[in-house]
Structure formats: C-alpha cells, structure tokens
C-alpha cells in the first residue's frame, strides 16, 4: 500500500480525490490536511471532516492548516464551489473531530515517524507544503513524491494562471524549487478528465453514500462550470493527482523544468514550463479518460 498524506481545500473535486484514494485498496491515507483555497479555512476544514465521515475514514487524522497564503490575501472560488466551498449535497455537522495540532505539525510527524517514505498529494494551494519545507527541510526530504494538481500551459483563474498556483504563487515557487520529486497534473491533463453525462449517470446508480454524495457534487459542479466557463462538461481536476499515483500507466508524461511567476503584472501565478532539456518535474499531459473514471467508480463502490 502507498502511504499518503492528502493536503486539500475541499472543494468538489478535492472530495472526489479523497474518495478515490480512500476506496482504493492500494492506498493508505495517513492524514488529511486542509488549506485555505476554494473557501476559507474554517469551511475547507469542515468540508474535509464531512468527506472523511462519508468515506468512513474514522481513524484518519484531519488537521487544519494555513488560513491564508504566505504573502497575498486569500483568494476563494465561490463561483465554482459555492459559498460553502461544497455546494450541492447536504452538509451535516461532522462527527469526525479536527486534530488539535496544526496541519504542518501533523505532516511533519507522519513523515518523520513512518517506516516508508510518504507520498503527498496536494490538491489545493501549496501553502502548507511550503511551510513544511521552511519549518523542517529534513521532514520534507522524506516526501517520496509530491503529486500536485496545479498549473498548466493555460490558465483558468487568469489568462495565465491556474487557481491553486495563483492562490499562493510564493508558496508554489518555494515548493517547485525545493528539490522534492514532483508530479504535476496541470490543466492540460485535467481538462481531459471530463465528467460525461454517462459517467454521472453511472455514479448515480451506485448504492453507496460516497457515490450519492459524489453524484450531488458533480451535479452542482457541472452547472457551475457551464455558468462560469461555458463548458458543457466539467473537468474534474483533483482526482487526477491521485490517479497518477495509483495508475501511472493511464497517463503520458513529459519531463520539464517548472518555474513559478511571482512578479509579473499580468502573469502572476503562471507556471513557466520548459521541456526543451527535460527537467525534474514529471508533467502529465494525456490521460485515458475511460480508465480514469473506471478507477473512481470502483473506489465509490468500495466505500460505505
Ligand atoms: C483547482 O482549483 C480548485 O477550484 C479545484 O479544486 C482544483 O484544485 C483547479 O484549478
Ligand atoms: Ca482543490
């Protein structure tokens, strides 16, 4: 089993990413950590707790992390995720209790006390991972691989920048320069991970709580993407960062050097991708959409 820490800002697609990991027999979630992003930190943490309840992750610590980016003011995405960060399904008061310790302390402890090196899957702004790099570089070096959803050769939050990188570009700059082995699922690949009508119908038929929750998430997500971006089918970004760890053969990759723009007047948060001479970042550029949804469907069937 691959031991993982899930660092997220749930977020519709973050929750689906968590379900994909939780329902797969090859993944062992050691902690869920939250960050400000799609909504403020109180809401992303509440949403993570609700998702953990729904996935039956009773024993997995859920820890709250950074409430704002390193330098900038917080950026949220209510136009996509609603005011709650998770509009659509009913959000009950969670039974799962949040950890008392800060997310970065929990990450540090998991990394230092595990026998095996840990994979970190980051599907929100990279604030917590950057803080970990600064606080305890030795712990950060125990990250076997960091799989991120972020960046790409085009933007969705500005013409140049993808939301997760834009929301904390200074953090992303620290992380990309850290030397941690990184796999990146940017918009180029996540915009192939579209939820078709038939996939949504297939999920609706699965008689588990997690599947019903996912159906309600996708229903809202589809309408939000149509309104905000005029896309008929929504790209379901974050589970790509989990699938790439579970089944790399579903993807094709390019090696690249990636720099993050933090000074540009119109390009703040852009990932500047150089593939001319290879580089340390593995960028996923193509995905087998059918098999990707097959993985998600199977996990949803395995969950409560
Ligand atoms: C990313 O931004 C968020 O709104 C989604 O959860 C995803 O992580 C896509 O740009
Ligand atoms: Ca996210």
From TrEMBL:
Q: Which UniProt keywords apply?
A: Glycosidase, Hydrolase
Q: Gene3D superfamilies from the entry? A: Ribonucleoside hydrolase-like (3.90.245.10)
Q: Does the keyword Glycosyltransferase apply?
A: no
Pfam annotation, one family: IU_nuc_hydro
What the entry lists under InterPro entries is as follows:
I/U_nuclsd_hydro_CS, Inosine/uridine_hydrolase_dom, IUNH, Ribo_hydro-like
> What are the GO MF terms of this UniProt record?
purine nucleosidase activity; uridine nucleosidase activity
What is one term from the GO cellular component aspect held by the record?
cytosol
Report the superkingdom from the record.
Answer: Bacteria
Offer one example of a GO biological process linked to this entry.
purine nucleoside catabolic process
Write down what this protein is called. Answer: Ribosylpyrimidine nucleosidase
The source organism is: Marinococcus halophilus
């Amino acid at each position: 089993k691959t031991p993982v820490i899930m660092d997220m800002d749930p977020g519709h697609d973050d929750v689906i990413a968590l379900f994909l990991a939780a329902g797969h027999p090859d993944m062992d979630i050691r902690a869920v950590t939250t960050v400000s992003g799609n909504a403020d930190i109180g809401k992303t943490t509440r949403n993570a707790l609700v998702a953990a309840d729904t996935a039956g992750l009773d024993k997995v610590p859920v820890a709250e992390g950074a409430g704002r980016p390193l330098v900038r003011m917080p950026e949220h995405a209510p136009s996509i995720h609603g005011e709650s960060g998770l509009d659509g399904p009913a959000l009950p008061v969670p039974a799962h209790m949040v950890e008392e310790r800060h997310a970065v302390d929990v990450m540090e402890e998991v990394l230092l006390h595990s026998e095996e090196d840990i994979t970190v899957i980051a599907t929100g702004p990279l604030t917590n991972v950057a803080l970990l790099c600064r606080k305890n570089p030795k712990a950060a070096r125990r990250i076997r691989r960091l799989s991120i959803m972020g960046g790409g050769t085009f933007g969705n939050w500005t013409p140049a920048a993808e939301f997760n990188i834009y929301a904390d570009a200074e953090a992303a700059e620290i992380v990309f320069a850290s030397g941690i082995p990184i796999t990146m699922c940017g918009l180029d690949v996540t915009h192939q991970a579209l939820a078709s009508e038939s996939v949504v119908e297939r999920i609706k038929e699965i008689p588990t709580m997690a599947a019903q929750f996912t159906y309600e998430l996708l229903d809202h997500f589809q309408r939000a993407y149509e309104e905000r971006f005029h896309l008929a089918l929504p790209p379901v970004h974050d589970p790509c960062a989990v699938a790439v760890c579970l089944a790399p053969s579903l993807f094709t990759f390019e090696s690249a050097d990636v720099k993050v723009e933090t000074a540009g007047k119109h390009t703040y948060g852009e990932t500047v991708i150089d593939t001319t001479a290879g580089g340390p970042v593995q960028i996923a550029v193509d995905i087998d959409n059918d098999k990707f949804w097959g993985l998600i469907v199977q996990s949803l069937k395995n969950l409560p």
